TrEMBL record:
Keyword annotations: Viral envelope protein, Virion
Pfam families per record: DUF1214, DUF1254
InterPro entries given in the database record: DUF1214 (IPR010621), DUF1214_C_sf (IPR037049), DUF1254 (IPR010679), DUF1254_sf (IPR037050)
Record SUPFAM superfamilies: VPA0735-like
Ranges where the DUF1254 domain occurs: 87-218
Designated name of the protein: Cell envelope protein
DUF1214 domain: residues covered: 356-467
Domain of life: Bacteria
Keyword rRNA-binding among UniProt keywords: no
């Protein structure tokens, strides 16, 4: 019997004994989560596989979608969205437009810099310059799970110059001289998203000058020492498209590949063992198509089960019972709420902790009807009720269901606080935004946020929100349909 046969028997036989003894980890409502733990000793049934696979899909969706994006940005040089190789800092001296389609719900407020970090060989030192005090900036550190595991920037470290060491889970060193802080990731690959505030088109050269001073270098280079041995080359698998992730059981094969770079955490040992019992995250490549039809069907059905649970969360978000800001955070704030983590990735992957940014979102009007470009709406800030922020705010239009920016005749994708001097104020001191497909006319066009032909959502961003936003004292306006 070859090693592959041994491993296969382990998956569906002996390992099942341990797996079915595990307490089911709650990923949300839906099918009976105790089903797997109450199974008899022996090979897992199709229903037990389906339940575990559903949990794996909910757990794994952010990892797989993150991989799709990272592959486009740092691996696939033929992709029009390609940025730079791994471990190379890349700045984009522009804001996102409808041509940028890799990330759902993209931010069009700030020019970005991107750093895709392969931390297997050694850490990297990230340097930031002194930045003028009135300009917001941030470095958001995101692991493969899409947890925000740390921040550098205006809110957390101020606008002074600094050096920060980014290390992977296997690095055991101490903070080097000249480094302000060691930031540790739980995964071997990580992503750092830099946001640098842009005050207007005339400010772009200033942003470029700041971006040019951002720096990322290997620790060995920083210390003037010989570089360690390179990490083994990775045979990156081809990612699925965003659409394929929602329906193909190959999703689980991609997740299986990714988990080799996410060492098992003490708090997730039982969960990862459960996934291993159906072939996800073992030392043998998962091939769903090679399984029996009942097992293939179980994996496929699990995808639909997971989306049913997601729909319950999305209904709460759309209805205003759950703030989108609750879907993002670090491992401590989100804990084992993997369903929220999945919903966060779908609503706007790489969303910030709410202390860094909040995202009040409107999918329905005041009457409870879904927003649609066939109608006209107003979105009004009453006097004294502009979003309370320490940095700045914006209101962005997204066409649905793709959740992408909307092309329009005036190339306006958002309205934000730097635009206030150009907006027309109401007689009482408030601001009315006209949300519609066609121009509201020359007298109101300064306040026009163009809508698409079909369904859409409005997402506010409050960067570095004040306490009034965090504690709920301030509430975002509700779109009102007009004739």
């Amino acid at each position: 019997m070859d090693s592959n046969q041994v491993r296969r028997r382990r998956w569906w036989g002996v390992v099942a004994v341990a797996a079915v003894a595990l307490t089911a980890v709650a990923c949300g409502g839906g099918r009976d989560a105790d089903e797997a733990s109450n199974a008899p000793t022996g090979e897992l049934t199709a229903d037990q596989i389906r339940e575990i696979a559903k949990q794996a899909y909910i757990y794994g969706y952010p990892l797989v979608d993150n991989y799709r994006i990272q592959y486009a940005y740092f691996q696939d040089k033929q992709n029009p969205q390609y940025m730079a190789p791994w471990n190379t800092l890349h700045s984009v001296a522009k804001v996102f437009t409808p041509a940028d389609t890799t990330i759902q719900t993209p931010n069009s407020d700030t020019p970005y810099s991107f750093f895709g970090a392969d931390l297997r060989a050694e850490p990297f030192v990230l340097s930031v310059p002194t930045i003028d005090e009135n300009r917001y900036y941030s470095l958001q550190f995101i692991d493969q799970y899409t947890y925000n595991f740390d921040y550098v920037g205006s809110r957390t470290t101020g606008n002074k110059a600094g050096k920060y060491l980014l290390a992977g889970p296997k690095w055991k060193g101490e903070k080097p001289a000249g480094v302000d802080k060691v930031i540790r990731a739980d995964t071997e690959f990580a992503f750092v998203g830099y946001r640098t505030q842009l005050f207007g088109a005339e400010d772009l050269d200033n942003v470029k000058a700041i971006q040019a001073q951002y720096k990322a270098e290997p620790l060995s280079t920083f210390e003037g020492k010989p570089a360690p041995a390179a990490a083994p080359a990775v045979d990156f698998v081809l990612p699925q498209s965003a659409e394929e992730q929602r329906k193909s059981s190959k999703f689980f094969e991609t997740l299986d590949f990714i988990l080799q770079f996410a060492p098992v955490l003490e708090t997730e040992k039982e969960l990862r063992a459960k996934f291993a019992s159906i072939g996800i995250g073992t030392d043998k490549k998962l091939d769903v198509a090679s399984l029996g039809k009942d097992k293939q069907d179980a994996f496929q059905a699990a995808i639909a089960d997971a989306w049913k649970e997601y729909d319950q969360v999305q209904t709460k978000v759309d209805g205003g019972q759950l703030s989108p800001s609750e879907l993002f955070g670090n491992r401590q704030t989100l804990g084992s709420n993997y369903l929220y983590r999945m919903a966060g990735a779908i609503n706007g992957i790489y969303g910030n902790d709410k202390a860094e940014a909040m995202y009040p979102t409107a999918a329905k009007d005041a009457a409870g009807a879904l927003l649609d470009g066939a109608n006209k709406y107003t979105y009004r800030y009453a006097p004294g009720q502009l979003p309370p922020v320490n940095a700045f705010w914006s209101l962005t239009m997204y066409g649905m269901p793709q959740s992408l920016l909307v092309a329009n005749p005036i190339d306006r994708y958002l309205i934000n606080s730097p635009m206030l001097p150009t907006l027309k104020q109401d007689t009482d001191g408030g601001y009315t935004i006209y949300v519609q497909r066609e121009t509201p006319g020359p007298e109101r066009e300064s306040n026009w946020l163009p809508a698409p032909d079909g369904p859409f959502r409005l997402t506010q961003r409050l960067y570095w929100p004040k306490e009034a936003a965090l504690d709920g004292a301030w509430q975002a306006p509700v779109p009102r349909r007009t004739p």
